[in-house]
C-alpha cells in the first residue's frame, strides 16, 4: 500500500499503528512540522481536518486529529499527540495550517484544559473564563457548589491571552480584541436572526463590518461528558437533540459507529428505511432552512410555505416513529419499528407535490430582484478556504468542495441509488441558497428509487442485552443536512464509552462567519448567517 | 366571580386539568375580600389582556422549532390571540422558555425578564426548562428555571407537541383572567 509507505516516510518520528484507520502517534514537539508535511506533500495532501478531539487517558492529556484530503477523499489518517504535564498542559497549535482548528482548539482548552502555543486567541470557547476546572478531564470535580448558577450579568472580557513560542521559550501575552475607538455592536445572544442563542460582537466602520468576535456556549449542555456515564443505547437519545433538524441522520451516525465496532450486520430493509428517513429529514431540514433564511430577509410568505410543506414530512415521521421532531427511531442494529402501512403511499404522493411546490418557491423568492441583489456576489468563500475551514455540506459544495459523504464513503443504501452530488463554483450567498433547493430535488430522486425497491425482511439485527464495545477508537461519519457529522468513540471495553466526541457541521459553519462578513454590510450578516444555516445546539453540544 | 365563568373558546371548563388549583386560588383571594364593581371591570380588562398575549421570540433549542411550528400555518396561535412574536422584550408579555437554560444563559434570561414591562409571564416549555430533562446530570445545565425566573405554566414533553403548547398557553389565559383578584387582595392586606 503506497500511501501508507509514503506516510511512514514522511513521519520518521511517529509510531504507526493499524486500527480502523492508520494511526500515527507523534511526539508533541514534532507535531506541527509533521502535520505541515502531510498537508503540503503532493502525494498525501491532507488538506481537510475532519475532527479535532481532546482526550484524557488518566495520565496524559492529548489530542486526536482526523485528517482527510480533498483530492483523495477516501484516505483518512489519524494523528495523535499527547503531553504528560497536567497542571499547565501545552501543545502546539495547528491553526495556521487548518483554519478550522481555531475554534476546535479553543473548545479543547475550555473543556480539557490544554493550551495551544501560537494559537491567535486562547480563550475558552463554551464556558465562561471564571469556570473552575475542566469538565472533560477524568478528575473533574462536578460539585455544583464550585460553579454555582450565577444570575448577575457580568460583561464579556475585551482581552485575549495567547501563548507564543520564541527562542526564550513560551511567552504569555495579552491583547485587546477591539481597539478603544472601535464601534462595536452586539448581536445576540437574544436575537431572532442568529437562529438561536449565539453572540456576535460586530465591529463596524459605518455600515461595513470590520471584524466579528464570536461568542458561543449559551446552549452548551455538556453532552459529551454526560455520554461518558451512559450505556450505548442511552447515548442514542442525545444525538437527536444535537442538531434537532437532522435528528435521524445524527442518530444514524452513532448507530453506525457502534455497529462498525461490534461488526454487526444491519439487515437490508433497515438500511433502506434508514436511508429513506435520512432523506426525508434532509428535505425537511432544507425546507426549514430555506423558510428561515427567506424570513430573515423579509419574505414571511416563504416561511409559511416552507413550514406548511415540512408538516407533511413530520406527519410521516409521526405515523412511523411516534415523534414529530425528536423521533428516537434508529436503534443499534436497525430501527425500532417497521414502517407504517401508509408510509410508502404517503412518500409516493409527496414526491410530485414537492416538485410542484419547488417551482413555486423559485417563482416566489429566487427570481425576486431584491433577493437576488442581496445574495449574488455576497459573502464569497473560495474552495481552498472552504476546505481549510472545514465547511462541508451544502455550504461547502456551493464553493466547489466535493465533500458529500454519501458519495465519498457510501453508507446504508446510498451505493444502491443513483443521484448527483450538487456542486456549484460561485461560493456566494446565492449559491448556498439555491444549492439547498437543488438538493431537495436530488433527495426526492433518491426517495423515488428507494420506495420502489425496498426489500422485505428483518428490521433490526439481534443485539446482546448489554452492549460492550471492543477496546479501541472508532469513527464514523454521515452526511447530515448541514454537512459532515462524525462520531468518535474511544472505548476501553466497558458498557459505557471512555470518550465520545461529536464532530458537528455547524461548528465549522459558524467559524467561517467572520471570514465571510468582513468588508460586507451589516445587513448582509443576516443573509450570510441564513445561507450557512447553522443550528446553535449543534455548535455548543 | 365563579371560576367556572372563565371562558376559553372551544374548551369547556371541565375539560381542563387543574381546576382545583384555580379554585383554591380564588378561595384564598375571597378571604381577603374583593370589590364586585372592580371585579366586573377586571373581567373586561382581563378579557382584552388574555386575548392578546404576545410572546418574545426566544428559543434556545429543539422546543424552539415546535414553537415556530405553532406560529406557522397549520397550528397558527394567532387564532388564540398570541398574535405575533416580538423580538424585543419591551414589547412582549410572555417569555416561552423553549429549550435548555445553561449556566451561561441564566443571567441573560434573567435580564430579558427584567427588561419586560409588567404584567409579565413565563411559560416553561419542555422537560429541559422544567427539570433539565435528559441533561439534568450535566455540569452546565440549570435544572429548574424557577431558580432564575418565576414560572407560571409548565408544559411537559420533549419537545411538547404543538397542541400541548396551545393548551399551555390557554392555561396561561385562564390564569390571566383571574389575576386582578390577586392584586386587590394584596392591597386589602
Contiguous uncertain segments of 5+ residues of chain A: none
CATH superfamily membership of the largest domain in chain A: Cytochrome-c3 Hydrogenase, chain B
Number of domains of chain A: 2
Strand order of the largest sheet of chain A: 1-2-5-4-3
Tally the beta strands of chain B: 3
Task: Report helical residue fraction of chain A.
Answer: 25-40%
Strand order of the largest sheet of chain B: 1-2-3
Q: Using a beta-carbon cutoff below 8 angstroms, give the protein chain pair with the largest interface and the number of residues from each chain.
A: A-B, 46 and 41 residues
Provide the CATH architecture of chain B.
3-Layer(aba) Sandwich
N- and C-termini, Cα separation of chain B: 20 Å
CATH fold topology of chain B = Rossmann fold
Shape of chain A: globular
Q: What radius of gyration of chain B results from the CA coordinates?
A: 17 Å
Which class best fits the helix and strand makeup of chain B? mainly alpha
Number of domains of chain B: 1
Query: Could you please say which CATH topology of the largest domain in chain A applies here?
Result: Cytochrome-c3 Hydrogenase, chain B
* Chain oligomer state: heterodimer
How far apart lie the N and C ends of chain A?
Answer: 38 Å
Question: Hey, roughly how much beta strand do the residues of chain B contain?
Answer: 5-15%
Q: Which features does this protein show?
A:
heterodimer; A: alpha+beta; Beta Polymerase, domain 2; Cytochrome-c3 Hydrogenase, chain B; 5-stranded mixed sheet; 3-stranded antiparallel sheet; B: 189 residues; mainly alpha; Rossmann fold; 3 strands; 42% helix; 7% strand
Question: Could you explain the architecture of this structure?
Answer:
The complex is a heterodimer of chains A (541) and B (189). By secondary structure, chain A is an alpha+beta fold. Helix content of chain A is 39%, strand content 19%. Chain A contains 18 helices and 17 strands. In chain A, α6 packs antiparallel against α7 (268-296) and α7 packs antiparallel against α17. The two termini of chain A are 38 Å apart. Chain B is mainly alpha-helical. Chain B has helices at 19-32, 36-50, 63-71, 106-115, 126-131, 162-177, 179-188, and strands at 94-98, 121-125, 153-155. A 3-stranded parallel sheet of chain B has the order 1-2-3. Classes of the chains: A alpha+beta (541), B mainly alpha (189). Chains A and B meet through α4 and α8 of A and α3 and α4 of B.
Amino acid at each position: 500500500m503506497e500511501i501508507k509507505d509514503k506516510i511512514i516516510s514522511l513521519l520518521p518520528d511517529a509510531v504507526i499503528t493499524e486500527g480502523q484507520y492508520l494511526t500515527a502517534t507523534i511526539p508533541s514537539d514534532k507535531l506541527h512540522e509533521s502535520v505541515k508535511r502531510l498537508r503540503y506533500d503532493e502525494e498525501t495532501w491532507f488538506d481537510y481536518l475532519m475532527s479535532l478531539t481532546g482526550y484524557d487517558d488518566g495520565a496524559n492529556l492529548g489530542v486526536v486529529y482526523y485528517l482527510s484530503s480533498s483530492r483523495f477523499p477516501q484516505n483518512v489518517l489519524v494523528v495523535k499527540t499527547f503531553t504528560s504535564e497536567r497542571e499547565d498542559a501545552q501543545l502546539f497549535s495547528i491553526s495556521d495550517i487548518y483554519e478550522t482548528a481555531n475554534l476546535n482548539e479553543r473548545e479543547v482548552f475550555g473543556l480539557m484544559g490544554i493550551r495551544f502555543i501560537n494559537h491567535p486567541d486562547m480563550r475558552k470557547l463554551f464556558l465562561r473564563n471564571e469556570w473552575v476546572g475542566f469538565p472533560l478531564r477524568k478528575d473533574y470535580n462536578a460539585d455544583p457548589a464550585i460553579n454555582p448558577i450565577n444570575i448577575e450579568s457580568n460583561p464579556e472580557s475585551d482581552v485575549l491571552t495567547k501563548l507564543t513560542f520564541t527562542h526564550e521559550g513560551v511567552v504569555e501575552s495579552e491583547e485587546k480584541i477591539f481597539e478603544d475607538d472601535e464601534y462595536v455592536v452586539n448581536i445576540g445572544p437574544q436575537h431572532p436572526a442568529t437562529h438561536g442563542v449565539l453572540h456576535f460582537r460586530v465591529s463596524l466602520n459605518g455600515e461595513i463590518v470590520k471584524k466579528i468576535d464570536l461568542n458561543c456556549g449559551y446552549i452548551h449542555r455538556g453532552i459529551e461528558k454526560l455520554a461518558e456515564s451512559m450505556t450505548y443505547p442511552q447515548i442514542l437519545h442525545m444525538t437527536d437533540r444535537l442538531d434537532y433538524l437532522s435528528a435521524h441522520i445524527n442518530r444514524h451516525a452513532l448507530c453506525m459507529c457502534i455497529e462498525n465496532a461490534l461488526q454487526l450486520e444491519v439487515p437490508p430493509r433497515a438500511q433502506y428505511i434508514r436511508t429513506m428517513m435520512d432523506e426525508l429529514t434532509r428535505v425537511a431540514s432544507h425546507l426549514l432552512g430555506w423558510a428561515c433564511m427567506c424570513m430573515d430577509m423579509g419574505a414571511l410568505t416563504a416561511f409559511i410555505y416552507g413550514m406548511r410543506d415540512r408538516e407533511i414530512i413530520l406527519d410521516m415521521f409521526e405515523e412511523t416513529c411516534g415523534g414529530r421532531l425528536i423521533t428516537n427511531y434508529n436503534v443499534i442494529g436497525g430501527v425500532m419499528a417497521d414502517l407504517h402501512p401508509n408510509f410508502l403511499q404517503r412518500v409516493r404522493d409527496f414526491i410530485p407535490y414537492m416538485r410542484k411546490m419547488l417551482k413555486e418557491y423559485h417563482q416566489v423568492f429566487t427570481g425576486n430582484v431584491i433577493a437576488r441583489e442581496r445574495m449574488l456576489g455576497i459573502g464569497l468563500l473560495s474552495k481552498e478556504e472552504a476546505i481549510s475551514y472545514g465547511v462541508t455540506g451544502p455550504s461547502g459544495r456551493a464553493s466547489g468542495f466535493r465533500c458529500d459523504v454519501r458519495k465519498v464513503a457510501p453508507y446504508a443504501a446510498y451505493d444502491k441509488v443513483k443521484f448527483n452530488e450538487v456542486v456549484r463554483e460561485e461560493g456566494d450567498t446565492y449559491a448556498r441558497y439555491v444549492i439547498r433547493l437543488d438538493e431537495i430535488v436530488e433527495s426526492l430522486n433518491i426517495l423515488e428509487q428507494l420506495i420502489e425497491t425496498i426489500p422485505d425482511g428483518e428490521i433490526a439485527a439481534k443485539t446482546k442485552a448489554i452492549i460492550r464495545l471492543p477496546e479501541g477508537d472508532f469513527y464514523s461519519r454521515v452526511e447530515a443536512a448541514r454537512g459532515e457529522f462524525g462520531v468518535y468513540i474511544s472505548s476501553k471495553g466497558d458498557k459505557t464509552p471512555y470518550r465520545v466526541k461529536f464532530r458537528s457541521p455547524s461548528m465549522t459553519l459558524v467559524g467561517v462567519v467572520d471570514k465571510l462578513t468582513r468588508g460586507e454590510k451589516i445587513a448582509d450578516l443576516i443573509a450570510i448567517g441564513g445561507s450557512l444555516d447553522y443550528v446553535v445546539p449543534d455548535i455548543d453540544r | 366571580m365563579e371560576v367556572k365563568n372563565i371562558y376559553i373558546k372551544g374548551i369547556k371548563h371541565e375539560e381542563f386539568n387543574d381546576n382545583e388549583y384555580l379554585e383554591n386560588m380564588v378561595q384564598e383571594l375571597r378571604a381577603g375580600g374583593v370589590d364586585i364593581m372592580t371585579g366586573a371591570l377586571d373581567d373586561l380588562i382581563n378579557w382584552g389582556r388574555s386575548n392578546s398575549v404576545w410572546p418574545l421570540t426566544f428559543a434556545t433549542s429543539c422546543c424552539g422549532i415546535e414553537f415556530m411550528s405553532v406560529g406557522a400555518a397549520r397550528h397558527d396561535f394567532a387564532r388564540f390571540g398570541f398574535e405575533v412574536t416580538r423580538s424585543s422584550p419591551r414589547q412582549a408579555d410572555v417569555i416561552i422558555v423553549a429549550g435548555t437554560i445553561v449556566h451561561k444563559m441564566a443571567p441573560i434570561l434573567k435580564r430579558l425578564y427584567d427588561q419586560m414591562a409588567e404584567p409579565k409571564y413565563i411559560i416553561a416549555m419542555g422537560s429541559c426548562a422544567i427539570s433539565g430533562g435528559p441533561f439534568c446530570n450535566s455540569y452546565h445545565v440549570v435544572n429548574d428555571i424557577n431558580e432564575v425566573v418565576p414560572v407560571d405554566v409548565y408544559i411537559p414533553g420533549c419537545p411538547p407537541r404543538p397542541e400541548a403548547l396551545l393548551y399551555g398557553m390557554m392555561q396561561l389565559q385562564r390564569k390571566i383572567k383571574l389575576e386582578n383578584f390577586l392584586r386587590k387582595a394584596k392591597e386589602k392586606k
